[in-house]
Amino acid sequence: MTLKQENGILPIIIIGAGVAGLSCARQLQAHHQHVVILEARERIGGRVHSKMIADRVFDLGASWIHGIEGNPIWDIVKKEGIETEIFNYDVSTFLHDGGQPFSIQEKDQFLSYILEIEKALASHQGCSALDVVSSTINTLEIKNHALKMKLQSFFERVANDPFATDLSTLAANYQHYEGYFSGDKVVFPSGYEQVVYSIAKNLEIQLNVNVKEIIQTKGHIVVIDAEGQQFLASKVVVTVPLGVLKAKKITFTPELPSAHQHAIDHMGYGSFNKVFFQLDEPLDFIAKNTTSTNSYFFWHDDYCFNILDLSEIYKTPTYLMLFGGQQSIFIDRSNDLEVWSFISQHLRVYTTSLPAIPKQSVITRWGADIYSYGSFSFPALHHTEELVQRLNRNIDERIFLSGEHCNIQYAGTVHGAYLHGKDVANQIIQMVKN
């Protein structure tokens, strides 16, 4: 299928209707470029996916705007009048076995140790976060073995969320790559997809087109999908998730330059899953809480878990647990009953109000998704800005890569994907002008 030419010029094809692809297309179209988006799924949004379940909207992918001050996603929200709700979870309640919160003194001490370990992590490069956390805990001369284990597993939880990996595979200086904006974090009671639809207005998008091959010829680029359909383009912007590139689900002819392939192979990309569950009655350790916190950390069997209380948003006892790394991979491979069994065996130590089966549960499995093979990128061992810069080099001024994984400053975020898509569009616009 040869797409319609405008003024004898083939269109720019964007592969993927996620936030990066949509942002890129919108910017190009605003500068009078003919753009067509090819999307493998039967929907737009990529890893932003809001789903209505039992009259409630659940964001299965991205949920938060991570800081609204100066954030371009917040600008869209304000312009469109999209409803949001502030949900900051920086301040948490830490629980002892049995559900008793840490005392003020215990919490202050715990947070001071966290700060010391974070300082050590920030000063190291080229080694794993696990090595630095373990060695720093030993230098702190903490006599309480249980406290040592809590600190170690707390940082394992940090690797899981927000980095979708484990401490052993996370770069020690990961804080350098935490690309959030300042200000409140907000969520969408009616779904993040509202932002996606706003960006996608009036764009030419073809769904259910699963691109498998990109061939550069002398006069044009041929894009071939799984059904054998052929599309001709003047330029191609590839915005598929890094997991798809790692799995080599798209064949490039000629092959990608070695610098690009090296970056794809060595950048981190992990599985990150959500488990929402609703109950008839609130969890008793949360119901007893007299503070305004909505985030709770608890420990069991040397694991640290975090549970977020979404009850105010859903107007019924609703909770969210986030999993990354090996625990997320377990969820990718397990059925709902096995996942709930895993969660409940750890939660039961803290509550007497947990039912055998929740009233409602919603479980994601992004690592098993054939259009993403995971959730988002993270700074793996030996991660550098130069590694990401390799992905940002265009190929013969005809093929471009874009997405959250290509954003040096804001990787792993929706705003990172949005900004990078726009940057690539501006790069193409300058080429066309020249």
Automatic annotation (TrEMBL):
A Pfam family that the UniProt record links to this protein: Amino_oxidase
Family: Belongs to the tryptophan 2-monooxygenase family.
Gene3D superfamilies: 3.90.660.10, FAD/NAD(P)-binding domain
A GO MF label: tryptophan 2-monooxygenase activity
Catalytic activity: L-tryptophan + O2 = indole-3-acetamide + CO2 + H2O
Pathway involvement of the protein, from the record: Plant hormone metabolism; auxin biosynthesis
Transmembrane segments: none
PROSITE patterns given in the database record: PROKAR_LIPOPROTEIN (PS51257)
Keywords: Auxin biosynthesis
UniProt-listed InterPro entries: Amino_oxidase (IPR002937), FAD/NAD-bd_sf (IPR036188), Flavin_monoamine_oxidase (IPR050281)
The protein's name in its UniProt record: Tryptophan 2-monooxygenase
EC number(s) from the headed UniProt entry: 1.13.12.3
